[in-house]
Write a structure and sequence with these properties.
There is one protein chain. The chain is an all-beta fold. It folds into 2 domains: about 120 residues, Jelly Rolls (Sandwich); about 120 residues, Jelly Rolls (Sandwich), CATH 2.60.120. It contains no helices and 21 strands. The strands form 5 sheets. Strands 2, 3, 5, 6, 8 and 10 form a 6-stranded antiparallel sheet that branches. Strands 17-16-19-14-21 form a 5-stranded antiparallel sheet, with no helix packed on it. The protein has a 4-stranded antiparallel sheet with strand order 1-9-4-7, with no helix packed on it. The radius of gyration is 21 Å and the shape is elongated. The relative contact order is 0.21.
Length: about 260
């Protein structure tokens, strides 16, 4: 059995399944498997836990890379439950986290299989030392620029703000927004033309966080220029908002 706890000093990351911000505390645990077999791994906790299993390496800024399996409680309890075939010659990393944001508490890990699995705290020296979060805020108003999106209106009726983002290190950036309105986002390469919104578009997203707020994840190249456009799902909506961009380094925002 492996016992530990998620605390305010634990590392943070963003779930592979989009969430609103990098505020899921986690602990990475190395698995020492002495014999290949089918194993069941379970986390016991008063928290609603969630688990991810990676092979070879774990990068908290790109949590889809090397992902082998993920597990929740499958409706039976609040403990993670993984059943997976493990090989002796492969390094595995179990990431123990929570289903909801910013939850802390103790937990323990157990396994069943041909032989016991030995669990040890995982130290990933190749991963970034910290998870940088860059934040910017603004608002959509009746004086904001607007564009057409649906219908046959003769007047542009979707307000938007456009921001250029500048990175100092290439890597995956996760972009989310917090607001009281149902938001919509576009990511462009090089330029944005409100009259030709599909030109240079890399991604678009509505409520990728599952809560009427957008979420985008994209590999940002240091040599390229990127523009994030914040808009609304419905026409003629105004209000304040905050953008969170998190990854391996900080990001600067510049209004376009």
């Amino acid at each position: 059995m492996y016992s530990s706890a998620l605390t305010i000093n634990s590392q943070r990351f963003c779930h592979p399944t989009p969430r609103i911000a990098a505020m899921h505390f986690y602990q990475a645990i190395a698995l020492n498997v002495s014999m290949g077999d089918n194993y069941t791994i379970q986390c016991h906790s008063c928290m609603d836990t969630y688990g991810y299993l990676f092979n070879t390496t774990f990068d908290p800024t790109d949590t889809t890379k090397n992902l082998v399996e993920e597990g929740d409680d499958y409706g039976s309890s609040t403990d993670i439950f993984l059943t997976v075939t493990l090989q002796r010659s492969i390094r595995y990393i179990l990431v123990s986290t929570t289903y909801s944001l910013s939850v802390l508490g103790p937990f323990s890990i157990t396994s069943t299989g041909l032989v016991p699995i030995v669990f040890n705290l995982f130290s990933n020296e190749s991963a970034p030392a910290s998870f940088a979060i860059s934040q910017g805020s603004s608002s959509l108003a009746s004086t904001s620029p607007a564009y057409f999106r649906t219908g046959t209106c003769t007047t542009p009726n979707f307000y938007y703000n456009a921001f250029a983002i500048h990175v100092y290190t290439a890597g995956v950036c996760n972009i989310s927004l917090a607001s009281n309105f149902d938001s919509y986002e576009y990511l462009y390469n090089n330029t944005f033309n409100s009259s030709a919104r599909t030109t240079n578009m890399l991604q678009s997203n509505d409520d990728g966080t599952g809560s009427t707020q957008f979420f985008l994840s994209y590999f940002i190249n240091i040599l390229a220029r990127y523009i994030v456009v914040v808009a609304t799902y419905s026409a003629s909506i105004t209000g304040p908002f905050a953008i969170n961009i998190f990854g391996s380094n900080y990001v600067n925002f510049t209004a376009v």
